[in-house]
Design brief:
The structure is a single chain. The protein is α/β, with parallel strands linked by helices. About 35% of the residues lie in helices and about 15% in strands. It is built from 12 helices and 17 strands. Helix 2 packs antiparallel against helix 9 and helix 10 runs parallel beside helix 12. It binds pyridoxal-5'-phosphate. Pyridoxal-5'-phosphate binds next to helix 4.
């Protein structure tokens, strides 16, 4: 008789965004006349830019001709894309990363969920609290988390690094030593980012302890401040302790197109084994490559016109971020993030829980946001709004909240 993976039974409730979707669907069904403004899910709303569309059309045509048709892509990605990434995202920033250390994939979510497969189940995992829920859930599925403590809202074997307003939402070195450390900067959900000196501390700590940092830089395109690093490899000695995850979702609007990559330097060794070779083995066994058409579109992001358009796209969303940040501040809310990231993290008013505030906003002003509690115990009492909406809708949302 078949048996299920019991580790899955340790997962808490349904995925945060499914719960939100169900609540919003129920509200819309009861109130079909209400215009709901969605500032909840971190999905983009602007269309793909002309350079990317042109590249997609061109490669679709290539697929229609025998001479230019392509089948399976190379497991680790086409050289044209790996080189473009390497030159623009790393060499141009002074990072010593080579093209063959880049593994092209269909997005950072899959990579962040899958990367832990190459590590032992005995590893002690540290995560920021609050943080993108995939890091914790994928480790629960892999049987690393231990039991869930309902009272504390946390798993017994995961080290939670509180990111609160007292430490400006920046994780501090934990007292218990972890083996794997997930860092996400700029951070989802707090919208705050680590400065280079802070990140360097983590790199030094990981090298000293023999730990590996999984650095999620999905939002690097939104960095505004000079002293915030775009890549962990801007720090000294990061090649011997860090893996970096990147995505084309939030900079170029590829959430529905799907493209991302993971960087594993060749000198990153654990127990004398190269993580680069383990991930290459895993990738080639379980993954058949991102589509040619999509990788060409990714290459177009790095063309002169592509870079200009993507900058404008990010600028559009960051105008929303400033609008939300300033609007809520003037309405008397305590607000964070929104400068180096498309997320605004606000303290719920009058001591409301984050789910109570979710219901309150939905019912009273028909705005959907994301309850902070869904991102970890320290997210309780906070609420995330995203800058990924339409500008006019964002203006209206802020007006509604101000009048509330
Ligand atoms: N990493 C973080 C921190 C995210 O917030 C998200 C999406 O919201 C992702 C990764 C997912 O990226 P992708 O669309 O490339 O899978």
């Amino acid at each position: 008789m078949a048996k299920i993976n019991q580790d899955y039974t340790n997962l808490q409730g349904s995925y945060l965004f499914s719960t939100i979707a169900k609540k919003v669907a129920a509200f819309s069904a009861e109130n079909p006349d209400k215009k709901i403004i969605r500032l909840g899910i971190g999905d983009v709303t602007r269309p793909l830019t002309p350079t990317i569309i042109e590249s997609l059309h061109k490669s679709v045509d290539e697929m229609a001709r025998k001479e230019t048709f392509r089948g399976y892509a190379p497991d680790l990605g086409y050289d044209f894309l790996r080189k473009a990434i390497c030159e623009n995202d790393y060499v141009a920033r002074g990072c010593a990363i080579s093209a063959d250390e880049i593994f092209v994939s269909d997005g950072a979510k899959c990579d962040s969920g899958n990367i832990q497969e190459i590590f032992s189940r005995d590893n002690k995992i540290a995560v920021c609290d609050p943080v993108y829920p995939v890091y914790v859930d994928s480790n629960v599925m892999a049987g690393r988390s231990g039991a869930y403590d309902t009272a504390l809202g946390r798993y017994e074997n995961i080290i939670y690094m509180p990111c609160t307003k007292d430490n400006r939402f920046t994780p501090q070195l934990p007292t218990e030593t972890p083996d794997i450390i997930y860092l996400c900067s700029p951070n989802n959900p707090t919208g705050e980012a680590m400065k280079k000196a802070e990140l360097q501390k983590w790199v030094d700590y990981a090298n000293e302890k023999g730990a590996v940092i999984i650095f999620d830089a999905a939002y690097e395109a939104y960095i505004h401040d000079e002293d915030v690093p775009h890549s962990i490899y801007e720090c000294d000695n990061a090649r011997t302790c860090a893996i970096e995850l990147r995505s084309f979702s939030k900079n170029a609007g590829f959430t529905g197109v799907r493209l991302g990559f993971t960087v594993i330097p060749k000198d990153l060794m654990v127990e004398g084994v190269s993580l680069h070779s383990l991930w290459a083995r895993r990738h080639s066994t379980k993954y058949n490559g991102a589509p040619y058409i999509i990788q060409r579109a990714g290459e177009a992001v790095y063309s002169e016109s592509g870079k200009k358009e993507v900058k404008e796209l990010v600028g559009y969303y960051m105008r929303n971020a400033s609008l939300i940040l300033n609007g809520l501040t003037s309405a008397g809310y305590e607000v964070y993030g929104g400068v180096n990231a498309p997320y605004i993290w606000l303290k719920t008013p009058a001591g409301m829980t984050s789910w109570d505030f979710f219901d309150y906003l939905l019912r009273n002003v028909n705005i959907v946001g994301t309850p902070g509690a869904g991102f970890g115990p320290n997210g309780e009492g906070y609420f995330r709004l995203t800058a990924f909406g339409d500008y006019d809708a964002t203006v209206e949302a802020i007006e509604r909240i101000k009048k509330m």
